[in-house]
Amino acid sequence: MKILVLGGGVAGVSTAWYLSNSGHEVTVVDRNPSVADETSFGNAGMLSYGYTNPWAAPGIPLKALKWMMQDMAPILVSSSAINARTANWMLQMLGQCTEEAYRINKGRMLRISEYSRICLDELTQEVPLDFDHRNKGTIELFRDDEKMVSIGADLESLKEGGVEHEVLNRESCIHHEPALANVSEKFVGGLRFPKDGTGDCNKFTKGLADHCLKAGVRFLLNTEVQSLETSSGKITGVETSEGYLKADAYVVALGSYSPLLLNPLGFRLPIYPIKGYSLTLPLLDETCAPQSTVMDEAFKVAVTRFEDRIRVGGTA
Ligand SMILES: Cc1cc2nc3c(=O)[nH]c(=O)nc-3n(C[C@H](O)[C@H](O)[C@H](O)COP(=O)(O)OP(=O)(O)OC[C@H]3O[C@@H](n4cnc5c(N)ncnc54)[C@H](O)[C@@H]3O)c2cc1C
């Protein structure tokens, strides 16, 4: 089958790899000169199979009000950005902040995360990929006892989902992440996910794209997807800046831009763009650097170790 994959982020390139491996003739289309140059460029680098939480959680509505007055809030909503689409997304999110919805959503995330972990394990054994991959766990760090006590409900769903985890006191956190000894007065303990990992998403995607090329996948870069043509409820072609493209099947992997093309066709993709920030710095002093990811629960800031760099990511 001829398949067009629209979007060359981590999702599009991975999809292209698996489709090509299954014998399909695949072409990836992206507007940038190389793959993984948008959201997949500088993410926090966490492979969070255990540390995976729906943002919509009980207590979030109240926290959101507090964050509005806080200087270094994990989520900031600019009043100028509020429009009907934002308001609709927020209402949908609030509707998912019940105990029941959280339990269901978290269970789903854990199941798909575990599946991802197995897929990535298999993939990295199958093809050489250099993306600063480490399997040294994640520590979610808590700054106060109150937070330590409140993780009870999460522990239940982790047990239910069979996710390996350890509740750590301050000394055990330092045992796993010796650099935390430098700031030991700032936290009381943590939750560790030993099966979590870290890796550079940009390097991963570019590396996998090279393997795709060798396997015969075509890449149409610098090519903007402008609209999708449909007939009888099916996509029949794609209008791009470089001309009209046709295939037997189409995969839309345009990240947060997917709804712009699909919603006018009657799909209701619940994807809403959020801007995040990350900073990548060379490692100057090994004794001050984490071995893996340390996630500061209070500010939702992740500090992740790549081989000779660290990446700090946070604030939506
Ligand atoms: C600050 C931050 C930290 C994050 N941290 C983590 C993390 O630690 N772990 C994790 O798992 N996830 C993390 N994420 C999320 C993760 O980065 C994204 O889920 C992932 O990169 C999305 O990949 P994608 O392929 O779906 O989208 P993208 O990477 O956005 O790919 C979409 C592609 O489509 C192309 N495109 C879009 N519109 C068009 C068009 N009209 N025509 C042609 N091409 C087009 C773009 O050029 C782009 O290459 C983080 C995100 C942010 C912002």
Describe this protein with a few key phrases.
316 residues; alpha/beta; FAD/NAD(P)-binding domain; D-Amino Acid Oxidase, Chain A, domain 2; 2 domains; seven-stranded mixed β-sheet; four-stranded parallel β-sheet; 9 helices; binds flavin-adenine dinucleotide
Question: How would you explain this protein's 3D organization?
Answer:
The chain has 316 residues and is an alpha/beta fold. The protein has two domains: 2-41 and 203-265, FAD/NAD(P)-binding domain; 46-199 and 274-314, D-Amino Acid Oxidase, Chain A, domain 2, CATH 3.30.9. Helix content is 32%, strand content 23%. It has nine helices and 16 strands. The strands form four sheets. It has a seven-stranded mixed β-sheet. A four-stranded parallel β-sheet has the order 8-2-1-12, covered by helices on one side. A three-stranded antiparallel β-sheet has the order 9-10-11, with no helix packed on it. Strand 10 (234-240) and strand 11 (243-245) form a beta hairpin. Helix 1 packs parallel to helix 8. The longest helix has 28 residues, at 99-126. The two termini are 39 Å apart. The mean pLDDT is 93. The chain binds flavin-adenine dinucleotide (FAD). Flavin-adenine dinucleotide is lined by residues 7-12, 29-32, 37-40, 43-46, 48, 201, 224-225, 253-255, 257, 276-278, 313. Flavin-adenine dinucleotide (FAD) is lined by residues 7-12, 29-32, 37-40, 43-46, 48, 201, 224-225, 253-255, 257, 276-278, 313.
Strand order of the largest sheet: 5-6-4-14-15-16-13
User: In terms of per-residue confidence, which ranges show pLDDT below 50 for 5 or more consecutive residues?
Assistant: none
The distinct ligands, each listed once, are:
flavin-adenine dinucleotide
Write down the domain tally.
2
Q: What proportion of the residues form beta strands (DSSP E)? A: 15-25%
